[in-house]
Structure formats: C-alpha cells, structure tokens
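ok here's Aminotransferase class V domain-containing protein:
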Amino acid sequence: MANAKYKFQLYRHLQASIPQIYGEAKKMADEIGIPPEIRGKFGLTGAISGCPAPLRKDVAEATERGGNEVIPLAKLVDEIREIVKDVYGDEWDVAPTSTCEAALWLCFDTLMTPPNLGRGDNYRARYIAPYEKHMHHQAAYGRPFPPKYKDLYADRGTTAGEYGFYGKRQNNLDTVIVPLAGAKYPVHGIKAHPVPLLTEVDPESAIEQMALAAEVHAPYLTGFTSIGYDTPGYGYGVKDEDGSPLLMKRIGELAHEYNVPFLVDNAWGIPFVGTDPRKVNADLIVYAMDKAAGAATSGLVIGREDLMVSVRRAIGMQGDRWGTTASYGKAAYVTFDPGKEALLSQVQALRTLRDNPEIMTRPVDDLERIVKEEFEKLNPKIRQGIIISKSYNSQAVEVNYEGTWKNNEIGFPIFAIEDMYAGSNILQTGLAQMGVIPTIAYDANIYISPGLGTTDEHGQIIENNMRYGVRALVQLMEIVGRHAGLV
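and the structure:
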C-alpha cells in the first residue's frame, strides 16, 4: 500500500493483509532454509512462561539427584538463603515461591495492603507505580488512580472481570499510576490501545513527577513498585556511574523518604549478575526463576531481612511457633509453596550465578553479535530507527524500533500487548507461521534471549539455530514493512 495518512488506516490494511503476510512468511522460512526438524521446536526466547526453555544439564542432574534423596524442604530453603547472603550480605533474606506472580502477590498483600483484623472500618492504602510496560503485573494489585486508567488491563489475559487481572486486586488497596517524563503513550495496534514508548524517559524529571504524586497521596502511601529491567526500551537506559538504572535508584530513594517499601518486579531477570537491589535502593526484588535464571518453574523473593520476616511468616518458612530458625509449615500463603524439585533447581541455578557467572553472560555476548550481524541486513529505512541493547540482567538482547516514528512520520507498525492477547500481533503470529516460537514483540520492543532450542545442554549458543531464529525475525520485519508501505 501507499503510505497511510493515519495510523488506523495502516493497521486496518495490515489486518486485511494477514493471510498474505502469513503465506509470504511460510515461503520465507523455506528460503532461509530453516530445517524442518527444528520448526516448532525452537524460538527467540526460552523465558516465556507458556513455553519455558529446557533445563541446563547441571540443573537437571542436580534436580534428579536430589529428587532421589531424603531432604527436608526447610534445608533446601536455607541453602538458598546461604547463597544469597554470600553475595548480598547477611542483612538480606529470601523466600522461594511457586511462581513470580505468586511472589508479587505475597509481597503486596503482606507489606502494602491494610490489615483485615481489628474493630472498626478498614482504611484504604495506595502504592505508586510508574506508567511503564507490563503494568498488569506490578501495578495490578490495587484499583487504578486516577480513574482514567481504571480499565487499562481489561483485555489482557485469557478472561476479563473478576476472573481476570482485576481478581488480583487486594483489599482496600489502590495503585497510583504516574506517567514518566519524556515517555510517549500513543495509540497503536490492530487492537488499538495506548502503548508506552520509553526510550526518551528523563529520570530526574520523572522522579519529580513521582515525588509530587507521593506528596499528594502521602496519608495513604504504603509502597512503590517498578519493573527491574535495565534497557532503554523499558525506560531504564540512563545509568549511574555504577551502571545501575538511575530512575530505579531514585524511586528507591523516594520510597525511603516516606519509610515505605520499594518492590522491584524483575521477573525476566537474574540475581547476582543482574539488577542489584542494593544499588537501586530496592527493599524487595522478585524473580521468575524459570525465565532467565535457568531453574524450574518457580519464583523467588529477595529482600531486606526486616521485611522478609513478614514475607517468610506469611508463606510458612520463618520458624515454628515453639522456636526454630526456619520451618516449612502452614501459613496464609502456603498455597504459594514451590515443590522440592523447584527448590533443588533454584539451589543449582543460584550456585552457578554465584560461582560461574560466565556460563550465563557468554551466551548473551554471542547473541548480541548474531543480532547485530543479522539486523545489518534489514532494509535501511527500518534499520536506521532501531536501537539494539544487551542485558545480562534479562539474559537478552533488546531490539527497540520506536525511532522509526520520528518527525511525526508513520514508522514500522507497533503492536500493543492487547494485540498479543487478541492474536493480532503479526510479529508474533507471523513467526509462528515460519516454525519459530515467538518472543515478546509489542510496544515497539522486541526481547530476544537464548534457551529455546538455541542452546546446548550447557546453556551455550548453538550458532545456526540462533541465527535461523533471528534471520526469520528480520525477514518477517521486511515482509511487514513492505505491506505497511515503508519498504
């Protein structure tokens, strides 16, 4: 098509072109030469919950070996505590959980939600969240404020209403959503929705806006939260002299001014090698240990010891009532317990991160090289607006294309998260047509990571497989760009 005059015309045309795009994508998979035996069995990330990467050999062997032994679960939790304290110090503690979302729920309800017991009416509480990506996780545990955001997550997930994200909202808890200075929130996508574009976030101005919100809501304030990623596409590209995201660090400082917790959602991140909670003034940081860290499906909370007493009590790990240093008993959130195999895998994954971090960093270096080489072949009209960034924290390479929309010109199509849930994100569904399991590719931000049929049993890159996946993405972007009238 000729260049569209308005965005909705662009997305309307793309929707009509989906059958043709799929057909071209399937043919392109043959031209690229993706072997039939790996199609549908490899992809651009092993960090998606719905299709996690196979376990590394050392993690699988440790899990199987321990699974055949008699080991009290409290002993495994204490091993995890020891490893974390080896790196972060004795003032930090841990609580393993069944998933990262369970870890978030546990922390929000334990530390930021008003108490349920006692005479009289309950009071309301509020926590502050920057308007950033993945808000339906870290910012969905309270009712949104101001009301213009009240239906922000309605179309995310498999169902709406009480059974959807809104069912996570905690008792008498509100979420104050603060737009970030320098960010843009335009409407994009076939299923049109606002998307946060964050590469130009100004940390100092953004924290001023958050400080104003904190002052307004001070009588109700019980915490702050943010995502834990460290790349430009997530708004955390500006770093301090230690390499820590400046905005994240400032949020932590602000939280401490109000004597409330700062909770960092680092689901797609890893301990020790990634975002350091000490350097960003975080009080708690949570992980999906199956995404980037290499463990089996499970979550982990790492936090300051005083706060972790409450968290560990709530999940039944803090100690028996008659007096022990640790237990594995019953409590309000025992439903979030991880199993023995998950704990065993966490022990081994954390040992590797502590003792041999190069096992985790080397594949990211190799992936960055492959991504940069393959994206050099992309049409310059698209490529010139792309920023490629490496993240050891997320074991990923970020490809951000916000810059293709400079000077009020229509750029490369941007798909909203709602497009992913609706099946109308062509960058994801188109890859599936090529036999490549897709990664997240919304909000003009594509995260590529190893692990899903692209690494060997030791977690190292299989060059050909990784290159097939990245090359498929580049060629799909060429196809979509052509149908969008850019190429």
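+1. Residues 57-355 form a domain with the Aspartate Aminotransferase; domain 2 fold (CATH 3.40.640.10).
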